[in-house]
C-alpha cells in the first residue's frame, strides 16, 4: 500500500488557510487532515463543517476529517455533505460505534475509527472488516506539537499483524508527534498514512512536505 502524507491544518495559518492547504497539496500531500474539536471530548474548540465547505473547491485532494467530538454521529452527515471523503470517529466517543461507522458509509464517505493511545486494539477487532482506516493516536488528542508516545510503536505493529492475519487492506494512520526524524521508523512499524501538523506548517511548507515524503517513499 502506498504511503500517504496527511498534513493537519490545525497548525496552518487560519488567516491564510486556502493558501496553506494549496501549498501542502501542490508539494505532494495527498490527504488534507481536518481536526474537528468540540471542547468536550478534547479541551479545545477548533472549527466545524463550514470551514470544510469553504476550502473544498480549492483542490481535489482527499479530505480526511478527524472528529474529536462526543457522539460524533450527530455530525457525520454534515461533514460528508461538506465534502469530507474520509471521516474518523473516536471509539471512546461513541456509545454505538458500529452504528456510527455505518452512518459514515451510508453518507457516502470512507469510515475510520480513531483510538486514543491507551485504548486497546480489541475494541475494533470485530469492526475491522468494515473499516477503510484505523487512526492510531500517537499523542493524547487535543493539541498540535506534542511528543510521540513510544509505546505506540508496539500498538502499530500489533495492528499491522491483525490486519494482515485477516487478509484486509485497511489503512493504518498515525497522528501526533510525527516529524522528519521519526516518520521512517513509524512506517517501519507498519503505518502507511501519516498525519503531520507542526512538521508541515511550521516554516517552509513545500520544503517540509518534500522532506517528510522523502523519508517514506
Ligand atoms: C491532535 C490532532 C493532530 C495534530 C497533530 O489532537 O489530532 O492531528 O494536529 O499535530 P502534530 O503533528 O504537530 O503533532
Ligand atoms: Zn488529527
What's this model, at a glance?
This protein has 217 residues and is α/β, with parallel strands linked by helices. Helices cover 32% and strands 20% of the residues.
Present as ligands are: D-xylitol-5-phosphate, zinc ion
Helix content: 25-40%
Give the tally of structural domains.
1
Unreliable parts? none
Separation, N- and C-terminal Cα atoms: 11 Å
CATH A-level architecture = Alpha-Beta Barrel
Question: How would you describe this protein?
Answer:
The protein has a single domain, classed as TIM Barrel (Alpha-Beta Barrel). The radius of gyration is 16 Å and the shape is globular. The model has no long low-confidence stretch (mean pLDDT about 100). Strands 1-8-7-6-5-4-3-2 form an 8-stranded parallel beta sheet. Helix content is about 30%, strand content about 20%. It is built from 8 helices and 8 strands; from the N terminus they run βαβαβαβαββαβαβαα. It has about 220 residues and is of the alpha/beta class. Zinc ion binds next to strand 2.
What brief labels describe this structure?
217 residues, alpha/beta, TIM Barrel, 8-stranded parallel sheet, binds D-xylitol-5-phosphate, binds zinc ion
Amino acid at each position: 500500500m502506498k504511503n500517504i502524507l496527511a498534513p493537519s491544518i490545525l497548525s496552518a495559518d487560519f488567516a491564510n488557510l486556502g493558501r496553506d492547504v494549496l501549498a501542502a497539496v501542490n508539494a505532494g500531500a495527498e490527504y488534507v487532515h481536518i481536526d474537528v474539536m468540540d471542547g468536550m471530548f478534547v479541551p479545545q474548540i477548533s472549527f466545524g463543517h463550514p470551514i470544510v465547505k469553504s476550502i473544498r473547491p480549492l483542490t481535489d485532494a482527499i479530505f480526511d476529517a478527524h472528529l474529536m467530538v462526543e457522539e460524533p454521529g450527530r455530525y457525520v452527515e454534515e461533514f460528508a455533505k461538506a465534502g469530507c471523503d474520509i471521516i474518523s470517529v473516536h471509539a471512546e466517543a461513541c456509545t454505538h460505534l458500529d452504528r456510527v461507522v455505518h452512518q459514515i458509509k451510508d453518507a457516502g464517505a470512507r469510515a475510520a475509527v480513531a483510538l486514543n493511545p491507551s485504548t486497546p486494539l480489541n475494541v475494533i477487532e470485530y469492526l475491522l472488516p468494515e473499516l477503510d482506516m484505523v487512526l492510531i493516536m500517537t499523542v493524547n488528542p487535543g493539541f498540535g506539537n506534542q511528543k510521540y508516545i513510544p509505546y505506540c510503536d508496539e500498538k502499530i505493529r500489533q495492528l499491522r499483524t491483525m490486519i494482515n492475519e485477516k487478509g484486509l487492506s485497511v489503512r493504518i494512520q498515525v497522528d501526533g508527534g510525527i516529524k522528519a526524524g521519526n516518520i521512517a521508523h513509524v512506517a517501519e512499524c507498519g503505518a502507511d498514512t501519516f498525519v503531520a501538523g507542526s512538521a508541515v506548517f511550521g516554516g517552509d511548507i513545500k520544503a517540509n512536505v518534500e522532506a517528510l515524503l522523502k523519508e517514506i517513499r
